[in-house]
Structures are given as structure tokens and as C-alpha cells.
Amino acid sequence: MSDPVLTLDRVSRDYVRAGRRLAAVDEVDLVVHRGKTLGIVGESGCGKSTLARLALHLVPPSSGRVLREGQDIARLDAGALRRLRARMQIVFQDPNASLNPRWRVGAIIAEPLRAQGWSRQKRLDRVSEVLDLVGLPQDAVDRLPSAFSGGQKQRIGIARALAPEPDLLICDEAVSALDASIQAQILNLLTDLQARLGLTMVFISHNLAVVRHVSQRVAVMYLGRIVELASEADLFDRPQHPYTRTLIAAVPEPGRPLQAGSVRGEPPDALAPPSGCHFHPRCPLAQNICRRISPPLIEAASGHLASCHFPGASAS
Ligand code: SF4
Ligand code: MG
């Protein structure tokens, strides 16, 4: 396997809400290898975005370590951290909210370069390069975001993320606000850019079909924990965890997003997580042991991790 670009080592992130501890991310172990895409899938509120913020060091972990190329990010000095930040960029869900409507596209894309101290000429050259990379015309530099369609705006967001030459790109619901046909174009652009630039990607979405399209490995999150982690083929063809099987069964056809409420029952209250296996109130296979003992994330099949007392069991 190629070398690890990003490693989460027993990472947790707690928040206090109404005087109670909420574990948004709960003892997560993950490795993202160079040039590969790790997909992270789960319902809204499962901790996916907090995981992205931890990976980018926008929030520190409450416990555990976030490692970049084997180095603990928390131990870097200010200069090393500033250089590292340029090498990890994020593409957000809503380009309307993430692009300043009063700035011209050239200034938007060059902004991270200005922050890194690039000269004016280098900034202009790089903006021109990344416009080509994302398939936007050169005259975009002088126009405002409002002149562009939703898909083109997301290309601007991707161009801005690529400008400082990152090796790690985190996409948080990056196509979720787009129409299905535009989603496919942006997903193809991302996989093409990955191949051309050797990018490492973390692709976060509630939509299984889009995660499947871009990822080599996929992690399924439930209430702050990874409940299943496998290659894309193993996860979708041989899911081991009842939650994953429910998610897959809930997708009626390729490209159709996972709808809220497609898993029976409500997602549990993260402030009062269920005892034992967090999924037990919604699990068709739950037994007494599930209510008492939290199942560890262990190898259920070769290279295929699942946290379930009865991995691979079928409800029928
Ligand atoms: Fe269902 Fe029990 Fe497995 Fe949890 S441990 S997913 S409740 S069978
Ligand atoms: Mg989110």
C-alpha cells in the first residue's frame, strides 16, 4: 500500500451541549493513502463534517492524534503549520455561500496564494493554470461569481482549493447542492484531477452513489464512530454491518441520493446515545448483547472492518 498522507489515531472530538458531553467524533482510526480517495458516508449529524475539520486542523482533537505524513499536526510550529495548511484544502457544499459575491473570480482563486505570500506575477500565472485545470475560460478572472451557473461556481471553488498546490483535498458534500447531471460532471472532474495531479482525497457525503463513484476505500459513520471500513467493492458488494446494508438497500437506483428517513426510525439523540451498539434501536438483527456491549471495530472479512456482534448476518 502507498504511504499514508493523513492518519487519524484514536481521534475524538467532544462538544458540550446543554451541560452534557456530545462525542461528535468518537475514537476514530483512519489512514488515507497517497493518491487514493477515502469516502466517508453517513446520515447528517453523524460527525462527518467534524471529521473534516479535525483532518484540516480547524479544530483540535479532544483526544488522539492527527498525523500528516507521520507527523503530529499539534506539535508543528507556527511556520510549519502555515505551510502545511496550504497543502490541505477543502471544497465546501454550497459555492454560493463559500464564494465572496463582491470579489472577481481571479481574486477569489488567488486569495489563498496571497495569504501564502506568492508574488503578483506567480499568482496570475497560477490562476490561469487552475482555470484551465477545472475547465473554466480565462476571461472568468474579471467576472463576479453571479455570472456563473451552480456547476461553474463549484469549479471556481475547486480552482481556489487547487491554487496553492495541495496534495490533500477534502470534499465535504461538494456535489450535494448540484443537480444530478451537474453532479456527474463535477465528480468526473474530481477523479480526472486526482489522476492528473496525484491528489489524495477525502470525499464526504450522505449520498452513497457519489461516494461509490469516486472512492477506493469507504468508511461508514454512525453517531461519531466508524462502523464499517472496506474497499469500495467489498463495502458495496459484501456489506458486513446491518446499518450499511440498510443504507445500500435504501438507494433505489444509481445516482439517486439517500433520502432522510430511508433508514427506519430516527437517528438517535447524540446527547444520549443508546447503550451498547449505538445502532441497536434501529437494527433488525439486535439481540440482548447488542443493548449491553458496544461491538469493537474488527476484521469481519479480509481487509474489511465492521463493528457488529453479528457481522454479515442477514435479517431474512
Ligand atoms: Fe445490530 Fe447488534 Fe450488530 Fe449493532 S451489534 S449492528 S444491534 S446486530
Ligand atoms: Mg456535514
UniProtKB/TrEMBL annotation:
Name of this protein: Peptide/nickel transport system ATP-binding protein
Superkingdom, natural source: Bacteria
GO molecular function, a single term: ATP binding
Membrane topology classification: Peripheral membrane protein
NCBIfam families the UniProt entry points to: oligo_HPY
UniProt KW ATP-binding keyword: yes
Principal subcellular localization: membrane
Record PANTHER family: D,D-DIPEPTIDE TRANSPORT ATP-BINDING PROTEIN DDPF-RELATED, TRANSPORT ATP-BINDING PROTEIN
Pfam families the UniProt entry points to: ABC_tran (PF00005), oligo_HPY (PF08352)
Membership in a protein family: Belongs to the ABC transporter superfamily.
GO-annotated cellular components: plasma membrane
Localization per record: Cell inner membrane
Keywords annotated in UniProt: ATP-binding, Nucleotide-binding, Transport
ABC transporter domain segment(s): 6-248
Biological process according to GO: peptide transport; transmembrane transport
